[in-house]
Design goal:
By secondary structure, the protein is mainly α. It has 25 helices and no strands. The longest helix has 39 residues.
């Protein structure tokens, strides 16, 4: 690969260098401009941070914020800002490396990290693809559920017929898919296309903030401003953290604000914009204004909405609460409008996340497969996660989310370690490594972020990988007993005794007492299906 091919992406630097140079000249002028003019100029030129916001503000963030607000009110408002601050610092370290060298990280890091470099970057990319495809399903599932809830709110129905729900879910999936294909394909076309996509994300994020903000405004008089301020400062969190389950919730939130696919998306979105050394200051502002502030606003508004909207009813962990369940509770206090607004906010969150998943696959797959970046290679690879549209109708099999969790949560600390090493590698980025007290402080923050990500990964693997596997392994003994009934039904009654003798005595007795032999089978046959659905749903809903 030539030096020229190793740098940038074809959608900007190699297509329109004149416009890129004009942007660099305007940035140099902004550096010497008054503060408010500088802020306005940076906001106008932001972009990669918007993709990060879109990806992190999805079904997982909605579920985590609903649970935190419904369980503990204002008391955990400090968690999401701290989690995102650590994530922003790690991405800032990554941007320093990428903008200095303008090289594609996949190949550059593979070379610079020595013997294990190729394996580490491959697992980094594999985790990105796995997360983007598998967690695509629950985004569509949440969107379809929100549209169904809107339909019930509009008609006053407590439930839709099976046929109506199916048609509505399919239509929702098709519409959202088409919207995202159009916008994502525009991103892979030109600088103008990137602008179109970024404006789409700005609109989505604005509508999400507006939706959840409206829920809070409707309950403005209920806000306890003192308690909310104490919540952002974490002054009331101490007693909660004495409970191990609450501590696990907090540590999990701290370690999961930034996903593995976000770490791959960010450097390539910088290159797609054609950004380089002259854009380092802009990149920092972009992370703050386009990623940190929207994330904190949305998650905080959801948590405050849960508190003032009546969903919060005292300090008690409500780990199983789903966002759509919370929207129905809001009806009792602020009427159907609150439910509708909340559902629209959820739909907006999922649309942004779906598009960001597609964009990152358009970047990642060509790198893994050694495919040259072109407009159409990006567009075709971006279609990889669209299989997730099936999420409007089906739940993922048990092992899908287990596999994704194992890869993604294991690789996030590895990715953080890579960024920490590369941002301090003087042989690669020279004097841009930095020096002095501020550099030491920044490195300390990166180390803290790395430690938190490791703790979050351990918790996530325990709760989302090991625990589900152990639970699934415990099921065959029960299933075997339950499957004895069909054998008894198929055979004459006198042949049923051996089947009953193979099962434990205490399990056979209830079956014989509950009903005659020929009636027991249908009851027992439905049990496995009813038990399987929640287990398939739980991991997807949490991520």
């Amino acid at each position: 690969m030539s030096q020229d091919e190793s740098k940038g992406l074809p959608m900007t630097a190699k297509w329109d260098p004149a416009k890129l140079q004009a942007e660099i000249d305007s940035l140099n002028e902004l550096d010497h401009s008054p503060f408010f003019k500088k802020v306005g100029g940076y906001i106008k030129r932001s972009g990669p941070g918007l993709l990060q916001s879109a990806m992190t503000l999805g079904a997982g963030s909605a579920a985590a914020s609903v649970v935190a607000g419904a369980s503990f009110g204002y008391k955990l408002l400090w968690v999401q800002p701290l989690a995102m601050f650590l994530g922003v610092c790690m991405l800032a370290a990554l941007s320093k490396v990428v903008l200095t060298k303008q090289e594609k990280p996949y190949k550059a890091f593979s070379k610079e990290l020595g013997f294990f470099g190729p394996l580490l970057v491959f697992l980094w990319a594999l985790g990105t693809i796995s997360a983007s495809v598998i967690w695509h399903f629950p985004q569509y599932g949440l969107a379809a559920g929100a549209v169904k809830d809107l339909a019930m709110a509009a008609t006053g129905a407590t439930e839709l017929s099976v046929e109506s729900a199916k048609i509505l879910a399919i239509c929702t999936g098709v519409v959202i898919l088409l919207i995202n294909i159009i916008t994502v394909w525009s991103y892979g076309g030109s600088r103008t296309g990137i602008k179109i996509y970024e404006n789409f994300l700005r609109l989505i994020i604005f509508l999400v903030i507006l939706s959840f903000g409206a829920v809070v405004v409707c309950n403005f008089g209920r806000i306890d401003w003192t308690a909310m301020g104490r919540g952002f400062l974490g002054l009331d969190a101490g007693p909660l953290l004495h409970d191990g389950n609450n501590l696990i919730l907090v540590l999990g939130m701290l370690g999961a604000a930034v996903g593995i696919n976000m770490t791959f998306l960010y450097p390539y979105s910088l290159l797609a914009k054609g950004w380089g050394p002259h854009h380092r200051t802009l990149a920092k502002w972009d992370l703050g204004m386009s990623m940190f502030i929207p994330f904190v606003l949305v998650t905080s508004l959801i948590m405050v909405g849960m508190t003032v909207g009546g969903v919060y009813a005292g300090d008690m962990l409500r780990d199983g609460l789903k966002p759509l369940e919370a929207s129905k509770v809001l009806v009792d206090l602020i009427g159907p409008a609150g439910r509708v607004i909340f559902d629209l906010g959820l739909i907006g969150m999922t649309c942004g996340a779906i598009s960001a998943h597609m964009v990152v696959c358009g970047f990642t797959l060509p790198e893994m497969c050694g495919i040259k970046y072109t407009k159409w290679s990006f567009r075709i690879c971006a279609l990889l996660p669209v299989v997730g549209v099936a999420g409007v109708m089906i739940q993922l099999p048990f092992w899908f989310p287990v596999f994704a969790s194992a890869i993604c949560f294991t690789m996030l600390p590895v990715a953080y370690l890579i960024f920490l090493i590369m941002s301090n590698k003087k042989s690669y980025i020279g004097d841009e490594v930095g020096k002095g007290p501020l550099h030491a402080l920044f490195n300390l923050i990166l180390v803290v972020a790395l430690i938190i990500s490791i703790i979050g990964a351990v918790i996530a693997i325990k709760t989302k990988v090991i625990a589900p596997i152990m639970k699934n392994m415990a099921k065959p003994a029960v299933t075997a007993t339950e499957e004895a009934a069909p054998a008894e039904e198929a055979a004459p009654v006198e042949e049923a005794a051996p089947a009953e003798e193979t099962a434990p005595t205490e399990e056979a007795a209830p079956a014989e007492e509950a009903a005659p032999v020929e009636e027991a089978a249908p009851v027992e046959e439905t049990a496995p299906a009813e038990e399987a659905a929640p287990e398939a749903e739980a991991p997807a809903a949490e991520n």
